[in-house]
């Protein structure tokens, strides 16, 4: 029987948290997605793993038996991955880097060439982030690093090598009533329909809908997109507006889309992220240095000393 390690990781989180809400927040997935994963694992094993009540989730006897082995199973798999990567690194290998659709142009041929100079025998494999996986493949080990525009608070959950700070802008159809404005106040967008990304994207959906800045005011959803092309198409067709990295306005301009700065919307921290429980490899550190040498993104953010690619003279930054 084959069981996805992601299902075991979700099971362990529910066991430790005792409830779906807290476990979902810890895993950066939506509660419906986590519920589906637990049900899928129960179906695969043919047993009920939890007793469900209004007070939370309590492991059954079968659940307790699985929990007693789950940590060792996951630890063994992580050790196998580390050993595999270490063996491959001795003679060169592939560094897998995730990127956000629409801003891949920030990484150029210069970035890859600089990395090849620093790590002879290595190559970079670029993979577009999957909107149905909030970790973009980091949790499953499908990628080593991912480029994110993210809130600074995400550094509490992930290791991060910051590349810069960049505003979020709003994308409007060219004929929109606000398209002629040079700058738009956030409050003017509160009643607009928005193009959202899927519920499965977890906290990313809330971030790109600016839920925190809304102060409890509900979002009108005009359309749901499953990738960048669908998102842009929905904006062009007038199904909604959407927030995007300012980079898109410079690197992916379109005559039928108006990108405008938004006053009152917090900026993103742009960086390369990896799981906090994984030690960065020399290849990861080299790629960070290559990005810093070739990528220009808004305001520079200083690194903690000792982080991959950090200059020993950099001053630590506040990441609260």
TrEMBL record:
Protein keywords: DNA-binding, Transcription, Transcription regulation
Please report the name of this protein according to its UniProt entry: LysR family transcriptional regulator
- Stretches assigned to the HTH lysR-type domain: 3-60
**Highest rank taxon of the organism:** Bacteria
The record's similarity note reads: Belongs to the LysR transcriptional regulatory family.
Looking at the UniProt entry, the stretches that span the membrane are: none
Q: Does Transcription count among this protein's keywords? A: yes
Matching entries from CDD domains are given as: PBP2_LTTR_aromatics_like (cd08414)
């Amino acid at each position: 029987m084959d069981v996805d390690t992601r299902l075991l990781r979700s099971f362990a989180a529910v066991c430790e948290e005792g409830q779906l809400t807290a476990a979902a927040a810890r895993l950066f997935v939506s509660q419906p997605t986590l519920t589906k994963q637990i049900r899928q694992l129960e179906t695969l094993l043919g047993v009920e793993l939890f007793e469900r009540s209004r007070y939370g989730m309590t492991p059954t006897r079968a659940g307790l038996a699985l929990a007693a082995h789950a940590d060792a199973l996951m630890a063994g798999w992580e050790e196998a991955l580390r050993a595999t990567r270490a063996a491959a690194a001795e003679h060169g290998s592939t560094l897998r880097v995730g990127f956000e659709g629409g801003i891949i142009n920030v990484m150029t041929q210069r970035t890859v060439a600089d990395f090849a100079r620093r790590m002879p025998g290595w190559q970079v494999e670029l993979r577009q982030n999957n909107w149905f996986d909030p970790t973009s493949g980091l949790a499953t080990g499908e990628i080593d690093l991912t480029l994110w525009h993210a809130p600074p608070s995400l550094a509490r959950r992930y290791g991060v090598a910051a590349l810069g700070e960049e505003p979020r802008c709003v994308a409007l159809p060219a004929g929109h009533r606000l398209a002629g404005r040079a700058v738009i106040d956030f409050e003017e967008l509160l009643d607009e329909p928005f193009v959202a990304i899927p519920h499965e994207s977890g906290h990313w959906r809330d971030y790109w809908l600016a839920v925190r800045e809304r102060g409890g005011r509900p979002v009108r959803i005009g359309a749901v997109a499953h990738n960048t092309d669908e998102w842009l198409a929905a904006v062009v067709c007038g199904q909604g507006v959407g927030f995007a990295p300012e980079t898109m306005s410079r690197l992916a301009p379109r005559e039928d889309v108006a990108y405008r700065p938004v006053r009152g919307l917090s900026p993103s921290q742009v960086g390369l992220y990896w799981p906090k429980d994984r030690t960065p490899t020399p290849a990861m550190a080299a790629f960070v240095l290559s990005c810093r040498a070739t990528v220009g993104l808004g305001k520079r953010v200083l690194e903690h000393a000792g982080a991959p690619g950090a200059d020993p003279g950099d001053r630590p930054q506040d990441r609260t």
